[in-house]
Each structure stands twice: as structure tokens, then as C-alpha cells.
């Protein structure tokens, strides 16, 4: 029996869980995936948008600008990388310049500070790799970059440290309203009862809403694909470089990441499937050709991985953050497409205000601790720090991922947080083991051995990301002993 159940552990659900963890409430988060950030929050551009793209007067516009302003504090509290590197929207012709002027007016109306229209020479001085055919750019110094999955995981970890319970691989399958005004939530594993339900299920926001008898909105998934370049190319630009937006989205960007890589994408393709995270040759070719328009020297090789994420586009054309019409104890945080990563901390505040409006003032916990310490990276330590930590724990002297210089000590630390961590992807997102040039080709078996040793999960049951994503089928020795033939 919980006071509040949050459905979905993306950046929105995790932000809400952390925000509400300040109060004396029993809270659980139910997540279908095997970790936080299993949906769009793990596969996006990682841009903390300044806020000039959103239509003035929308919830999106307000929460974008409010969320952006909260990032310095939140990322400091949670020990998550965040850099205000600023963003540029490039114009290559008169029509583009007209678009920039429109964005500038819109941004000012939305309350975005320090926007400026720059002439070509200033743009090229700032970013020499940009196409010399540029004629002007909109400069937004409040734009930034972060690691979207690290932030989501950090929010979830901090919520868990403050008493929130996380249930991964618990897919919500139906919701029943009980006579005592409570809700029974039936998941793929067990049932839960709660007084209040918060719907933060991303592209499944309308599915969850329908389960509760509310079909007031529909979500349309819209896919975006990306190419991530090796660190070698991470310095090609230092700001985030956009082209003018279209009615399908903010367009293809070229940006450095907080981890020193270079990211290009996304495209925007409507899809029917709510779990469609496949990339396509045409999609990747399109984003490469568009990115070349911004940075003509972008190499054709050097890409170390490709991925895709799904935007949750609501038919209402805005974020849906409100109590459901069927019961005020079901609160939607749905249709959170871009700029949802940026807006997430402000969405959490909004949900808090709605809840307070319904339930009255909530009682604060005296011992809420907003601080979370991330895993200290061996790679970033100086020589003395390295010697010291290896002396304290020899596991930090064993390099497991050679591309990213990740030690066994860091992997063991990742397995020992309050969140249930037991997949190779979960380790990757916490330590970067497997994120380098070889993409886990060398270190995955070693990581599996450590998971087996630390958690007692037999090797053949360890998965990449839960469900049926097992990595090995069994031990060849056992197979041969049982009479199998190779
Ligand atoms: C291509 C792309 C680029 C983007 N770029 C940016 C950007 O640069 N900046 C920005 O601000 N925003 C960006 N966004 C938007 C941002 O990623 C999203 O707004 C944000 O991640 C939404 O978070 P969420 O928690 O609502 O959804 P999600 O992260 O999708 O989380 C929802 C969670 O609910 C879970 N779930 C679903 N159904 C169930 C169920 N039945 N039971 C239990 N759990 C369930 C899912 O597994 C998932 O983990 C981008 C989005 C995309 C797709």
C-alpha cells in the first residue's frame, strides 16, 4: 500500500519521485524496463534547451524556461555533468534569417535571457568548422548539454536514497479503481495498491490513461535517430549547432557531448510502434547529409554507435500535466516530448503543486538529503589519487574497460547502490564501461563475471537490458558434458 505510485522511471518519473521524496509519503516507482532511463530519457540529444522554440503561452514554453534555470543547482546536487555551452541556430538564406527573427521574438516572449542575432563573421569566429555559407545565427548562451541517462539515474538514485522504492521490470498491465477510492495497479509481476497514481509512462502515457478509464488524449510516437562519433571528433564544435526548426521538430543538430564525443541527429519519422528503437540506413544517411550542411568537414567514418529514441507527441500539441478527468488522484505527466529533458525538474514542481492543491500541504521529511555522489571516475583522477584509491582497494587497480579506462572498483560500486542494478547496460550507463570505441567487445565478458560474482546471478541469466536479452546461452563445457556437439 503506497500513498503514491509513479508509473515510469524516465527523467520525468524520476524527477517527480525525487521531488516528492521530500515529504512523508510512501512512494513506489513501477518501471517496465530493467533500469531508469529505459525509454526516451536514455536516447535523446541531451540538450538543455534555452526555450526559444516553444510556442509562447504553452505549458511547454513555461516549463522549458523554468527547467533550464534549475539545471545548475540540480546537476551540482546530483553530481551529474552539465555545461552551458550555448546553442547556435544557423541561417543560410533569407528565409532562414526570417525564421531566426521569429525564434528570437518567441524566445523573448518566453523569457529566454541574452538571445542575440549574430552576423556570419562572429559565428565563424566562434565555430570555425561551421559551413562558411552561413549568413547569420541565433545565439542562445543559456543552452546547455548534459548526460540524459546519467541525470535520470542520479535522480532515481537520490529518490531511492530518500526512501522511494523502485520496481524495475514491473510493467503496468491494468489499473482498477477500488471502492475505498484507492487504485489497484496490476503489473507483470505483482499487484500494488495506491491512493494516488502519477502517469509518467512516456510514449505509453495514453495507454496508462486508458487503463484508468481516461481516453482524453492520444500519443503518437515520433522516432529520432543518431550517430555518435568517437572522442577524436569531440572538438569539431564546442556549441550545439542547430538548423532552423520545422513542424516536425528542432532539426538535425551537431553537438559535443558532456563525455567528449560528438553527436549528430535526430531525424523525425512518425511510427506506429511504441517500442521501435531501430535505426535505418536511410535515416542515418539523412542525418549525416543534413549535419554536413552545418559542418562540411564532418567525417564519414569515426561513428562508434548509432541509436534511436521515440518522442511522445500528444494530439493536444502541448505537455499534459494535470489531474485526470476521471479522478483527481490520477495525475498525468504525459505527452512530454522535446524539451522534456530540460523541463523535467519543472514538471516535477508542477506535479507537486497539483498534488498539494488536491491533498493540502504535504508534511516535509526532516532528513531529506538532496545530495548524491556519483561514481568517481578513475580515468579523471590524477596520479596521486589513483595511487591512493588502488592502495585502499586493489579493485581500482584492475582496468576492465580499456577504451574508457574503467576499473573493477567502479563496476563493483555501481552494483552497490539502492537501485536494483544487474544488467550490462546498467553498468555501462553508470561507469561508461563498454561505451568506447570497441563498444564492449572486450569488456562485456569481464563485466558479466563481476556481476555473477557480486550478485550471484549465473552467467547465462545475465542480460544486456532485462527481458529476453541474455548475452550467452550457456557454458560450452556444460553443453559438451551433456552430450552436445559443436
Ligand atoms: C530523438 C529525441 C531527441 C530529444 N532531444 C531532447 C533534448 O535534446 N532536450 C530535451 O529537453 N528533450 C529532448 N527530448 C525529449 C526527452 O527525451 C523526453 O521529453 C523525455 O525523455 C521524456 O521523459 P519521460 O520520463 O516522460 O519518458 P521516458 O523516458 O520514455 O520514460 C517513460 C518510462 O515509462 C516506462 N513505461 C512505459 N509503459 C509502462 C508500463 N506500462 N508500465 C511501467 N512502465 C512503463 C518506459 O519503460 C519508460 O522508461 C528528445 C526526445 C527524443 C525522442
Strand residue content: 15-25%
N- and C-termini, Cα separation:
52 Å
Low-confidence stretches: none
Number of helices: 13
Q: Tell me the structural class.
A: alpha+beta
Helix content: 25-40%
Please describe the biggest sheet, giving its number of strands, its sense, and whether it closes into a barrel: 8 strands, mixed
Number of strands: 22
Known CATH architecture of the largest domain: 3-Layer(bba) Sandwich
Shape: globular
Bound molecules: flavin-adenine dinucleotide
Number of domains: 3
CATH superfamily of the largest domain: FAD/NAD(P)-binding domain
Which CATH class of the largest domain is shown? Alpha Beta
Radius of gyration: 23 Å
Mean pLDDT: 96
CATH names the topology of the largest domain as FAD/NAD(P)-binding domain
Describe this structure in words.
The protein has about 475 residues and is of the alpha+beta class. The chain folds into 3 domains: about 220 residues, FAD/NAD(P)-binding domain, CATH 3.50.50.60; about 150 residues, D-Amino Acid Oxidase, Chain A, domain 2 (2-Layer Sandwich), CATH 3.30.9; about 100 residues. Helices cover about 30% and strands about 20% of the residues. The chain is built from 13 helices and 22 strands. The strands form 5 sheets. Strands 1, 2, 9, 10, 11, 12, 19 and 20 form an 8-stranded mixed beta sheet that branches. A hairpin with a 6-residue loop joins strand 19 and strand 20. Helix 10 packs across helix 11. The longest helix has 20 residues. It is globular, with a radius of gyration of 23 Å. The chain starts with a strand and ends in a 5-residue tail after the last helix. The model has no long low-confidence stretch (mean pLDDT about 95). Flavin-adenine dinucleotide binds next to helix 1, strand 18 and helix 8.
Amino acid at each position: 500500500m503506497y500513498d503514491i505510485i509513479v508509473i515510469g522511471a524516465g527523467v520525468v518519473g524520476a524527477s517527480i519521485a525525487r521531488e516528492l521524496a521530500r515529504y512523508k509519503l510512501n512512494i513506489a516507482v513501477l518501471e517496465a524496463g530493467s533500469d531508469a532511463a529505459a525509454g526516451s530519457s536514455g536516447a535523446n540529444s541531451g540538450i538543455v534547451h534555452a526555450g526559444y522554440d516553444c510556442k509562447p503561452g504553452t505549458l511547454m514554453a513555461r516549463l522549458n524556461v523554468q527547467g533550464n534555470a534549475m539545471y545548475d543547482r540540480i546537476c551540482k546536487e546530483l553530481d551529474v555533468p552539465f555545461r552551458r555551452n550555448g546553442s547556435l541556430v544557423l541561417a543560410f538564406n533569407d528565409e532562414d534569417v526570417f525564421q531566426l527573427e521569429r525564434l528570437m521574438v518567441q524566445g523573448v516572449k518566453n523569457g529566454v535571457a541574452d538571445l542575440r542575432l549574430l552576423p556570419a563573421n562572429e559565428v565563424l569566429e566562434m565555430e570555425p568548422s561551421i559551413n562558411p555559407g552561413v549568413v547569420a545565427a541565433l545565439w542562445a548562451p543559456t543552452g546547455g548539454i548534459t548526460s540524459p541517462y546519467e541525470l535520470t539515474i542520479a535522480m532515481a538514485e537520490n529518490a531511492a536514497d530518500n526512501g522511494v522504492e523502485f520496481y524495475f521490470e514491473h510493467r503496468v498491465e491494468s489499473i482498477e479503481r477500488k471502492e475505498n477510492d484507492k487504485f489497484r495497479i496490476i503489473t507483470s509481476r505483482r499487484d500494488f495498491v495506491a491512493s494516488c497514481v502519477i502517469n509518467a509512462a512516456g510514449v505509453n502515457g495514453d495507454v496508462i490513461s486508458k487503463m484508468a478509464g481516461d481516453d482524453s488524449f492520444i500519443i503518437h510516437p515520433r522516432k529520432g535517430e543518431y550517430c555518435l562519433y568517437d572522442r577524436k571528433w569531440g572538438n569539431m564544435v564546442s556549441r550545439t549547432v542547430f538548423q532552423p526548426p520545422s513542424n516536425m521538430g528542432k532539426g538535425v543538430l551537431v553537438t559535443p557531448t558532456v563525455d567528449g564525443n560528438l553527436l549528430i541527429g535526430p531525424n523525425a519519422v512518425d511510427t506506429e510502434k511504441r517500442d521501435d528503437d531501430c535505426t535505418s540506413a536511410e535515416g542515418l544517411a539523412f542525418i549525416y547529409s543534413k549535419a554536413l550542411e552545418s559542418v562540411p568537414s564532418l567525417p564519414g567514418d569515426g561513428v562508434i554507435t548509432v541509436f534511436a529514441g521515440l518522442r511522445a507527441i500528444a494530439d493536444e500539441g502541448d505537455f499534459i500535466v494535470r489531474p485526470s478527468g476521471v479522478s483527481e488522484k490520477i495525475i498525468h505527466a504525459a505527452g512530454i516530448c522535446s524539451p522534456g529533458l530540460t523541463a523535467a525538474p519543472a514538471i516535477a514542481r508542477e506535479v507537486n503543486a497539483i498534488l498539494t492543491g488536491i491533498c493540502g500541504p504535504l508534511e516535509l521529511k526532516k532528513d531529506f538529503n538532496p545530495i548524491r555522489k556519483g561514481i568517481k571516475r578513475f580515468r579523471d583522477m590524477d596520479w596521486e589519487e589513483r595511487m591512493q584509491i588502488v592502495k585502499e582497494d586493489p579493485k581500482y587497480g584492475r582496468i576492465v574497460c580499456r577504451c574508457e579506462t574503467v576499473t573493477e572498483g567502479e563496476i563493483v560500486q555501481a552494483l552497490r547502490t539502492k537501485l536494483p542494478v544487474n544488467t550490462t547496460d546498467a553498468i555501462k550507463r553508470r561507469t561508461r564501461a563498454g561505451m568506447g570505441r570497441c563498444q564492449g567487445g572486450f569488456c562485456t565478458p569481464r563485466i558479466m563475471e563481476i556481476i555473477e560474482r557480486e550478485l550471484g546471478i549465473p552467467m547465462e541469466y545475465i542480460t544486456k537490458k532485462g527481458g529476453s536479452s541474455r548475452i550467452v546461452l550457456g557454458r560450452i563445457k556444460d553443453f559438451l558434458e551433456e552430450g552436445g556437439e559443436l
